[in-house]
Amino acid sequence: METLFSYRPGDLLLFSPRVYWQLVAGNNDAFWPLPLLAPLMALVLLWALYRQAPAFIRTSLALTAVAWAFVCLSFLWLEYRTINPWVTWTIAPFLFQGGALLLTAARPPQPPAQPHRKGLSLMLVAWGGLIHPLGVLVDQRNWAAADTWLLYPEPLAVATLGLVLGLTRGWRCALLLPIPMVWCVIGGATLLGLESPFGWGVLLAPLVAITALLPLTR
Amino acid sequence: MDHQWSIHRRRLLQMLAAGTALSALPLPLSLAQGRQPLALERTIPSSGEAVPSVGLGTWITFNVGDNQRLLDSCADVMAAFFDGGGAMIDSSPMYGSSQNTVGYGLDRLNARDEVFSADKIWTRDGDEGRPQSRESADLWRIEGFDLLQVHNLVSWQAHMKTLRAMKEEGTVRYIGITTSHGRRHDEMERIMRSEPIDFIQLTYNPVDREAEDRLLPLAREKGIGVIVNRPFRRGALTESLAGDPLPEWAGEVDASSWAQLILKFILSNPAVTCAIPATTRVDHVRENLAAATGPLPDHDFRERISDTIRSLY
Ligand SMILES: NC(=O)c1ccc[n+]([C@@H]2O[C@H](COP(=O)([O-])OP(=O)(O)OC[C@H]3O[C@@H](n4cnc5c(N)ncnc54)[C@H](OP(=O)(O)O)[C@@H]3O)[C@@H](O)[C@H]2O)c1
User: Fold this and answer.
1) Which residue among B59, B201, B207, B288 has the greatest number of ligand 1 atoms within 8 angstroms of its CB, and so is best to mutate?
2) Residues B293, B36 contacting (CB under 8 angstroms)
3) Interface pTM (ipTM) of the complex?
4) Distances in Å between the alpha carbon of A16 and those of A3, A131, A177, B86, B235?
5) Tens of pLDDT along B230-245?
6) Chain A contacts of B97, Cβ < 8 Å?
7) Structural domain includes residue B32
8) Considering the domain boundaries, does residue A48 fall inside one?
9) What is the pTM of this model?
10) Most informative mutation of B238, B240, B244, B262 for ligand 1 (most atoms within 8 A of CB)
11) Are B59 and B43 in contact (CB under 8 A)?
12) B111 within a domain of the structure (yes/no)
C-alpha cells in the first residue's frame, strides 16, 4: 500500500500545467483584447457594488450573465473539453447560471444593507476581477496566459460570488450562489493540481462568501 | 481478422521467427529496416514474439488537445521512439486526447507497421467494451490493437468475456489487465490464476516493490507478460533525484542518468517484459531507450540501486 501514498495532486488531473496554460494563452490570443478589457470591466462591477445605483446593478449583473455563457462556450466547450472530457458535465450548470443572472438583471432586488457583507463582496470581486490574474507572477507562465474573469471560470466564479452577495438577497441569492461555490471548489483544486498557489484564493472564496452571509452586523 | 495481420507484418514475422533458430537473432526486421535494434528485447511468454523492453506511456504527456504545436512535438517524441527501436505505446480512453495524439503521430510518421499498440477498455458498462475499443482504434487511426487491457480492473468480469471473444475472432492479438499505485494486487492475483491472459500491467520501480512479493513470480510461473507503469512515479522520482549526483558505480551497468538506473533496475527483474515511461521530450525518450542496452544489474546490484534511491528520495 506504500505506493498509494505516492499520489500527488497533479496525479488527479489528466493534463499538465504546460498544456493547460498553453490552452489559456491560445484562448487569450483568440479573443484579444478581451483579456486587457477584463480588469476594466471589473472596475464597473466594483463601482456597481460600491454605489449600488440601479443602472449599474443591472449592467453588472447582465455583464456577468453574458460572461458565464461566453466562458462556457468559448473556453469550456471549445478548448478545455479537448483535454478534460469531464468538462462536458459543466456546460448545463454554466448556462443555467448565465440565464439566472440575466433574469435577475431584468428585475434586480434591493441590495442587502449589512456593511460586513458589502465589504466582503467588494473583496471577492476585487480578488476575482483584478488580483487573480496576477497569478502569472508566481506561476511558471507568462502574461500571455493570464486568466481573467471574462474568459476563465475560476476568477469568474469568485467575482460572481462577490457580486451576488453584494447585490442580491433572499431566494435570488440562494439560487445564484451554489454553482459558483461548487466551481470554486473544483477550479481551485484544479489550479492547485496545476501547482498554481492562487488556487488557494479560489478554494477559500466560498468560505468568505459563507462568512458574508452570517448575521454579524445589523 | 485479416487486417490485423496485414498491419502487423513485422510482428507476424517475428512470431514465426520465434519458433525457429531465427529467434536467437535480435530484431531481424528492424535490422532489415535499418533502424537501431535494441539489445534488450523480451519475449512475450504466451506467443514467443519479441518486443523491445522499453515502451512509451501517454498518460498526461500526450493529452494535448488540438494544439498543433504540441501535437507535432508529441509526434517528434514518437519519431525518436521508433528510430531508437521502440515499439510498444500504451494509452487508454481515460487519457483525454492522448489516443488521438498517438493517431496523429502514427499518421504523420506513417508508422503503423512499427507500433505495438496497447490500449485499454475503461467503462463500467460491460456492453460498452467492444464499441469503446472500436472508437479507440479509430482515434489511433489503426484497424485494431495488438493488446487490449481492462483498465484498473473496472468491470473486468464482463470485459474479460468480450476480450476473450475478440482474441478468438482475431480482432485483438493479446489481452490483459492493469492496475497501478500498488492497488488491488489480491484481485489481480486471482485473475492471473483464473483467466487466460497474456499481460498484466502494474507499478514497479526501486521504491515501489510490492509486486515482487507475489505478482511478478506468479507472472513467470503462469507465462504472463508484465508491463511496468509509473517507472518514475510520474516523474516524482526523477525530479527528486535530479539534485543528487549519480553514483560512480552506475557506470558498471552503463547507466548515465538516474532514469536509466531506475529502468535498469526494473528491466533486470526477469518477469518484466516492458517498461513504459511517458515523456514529452525527445532527449528523454532516447535516454530511456538506451537503458535497454548494455549490462543489467544482478541481485546485489539491484539492492544497492533500491537502497540508494530510497535513501535519497
Ligand atoms: N492503471 C493503469 O493502467 C496505468 C496507471 C498509470 C500509468 N499507466 C501507463 O504507464 C505510463 C507511465 O506512467 P506515468 O506516465 O504515470 O509516469 P512515469 O512514466 O513514471 O513518469 C513520467 C514522467 O517522467 C518524466 N521522465 C520521463 N523520462 C525521463 C527521463 N529520462 N529523465 C527524467 N524524467 C523523465 C517525464 O517528464 P518529461 O516529459 O520532462 O520527460 C514525465 O513527467 C503512463 O503514461 C500510462 O501509459 C497506466
Assistant:
1) B59
2) no
3) 0.83
4) 21, 24, 30, 24, 12
5) 999 999 999 999 999 9
6) 82-83
7) no
8) yes
9) 0.87
10) B238
11) no
12) yes
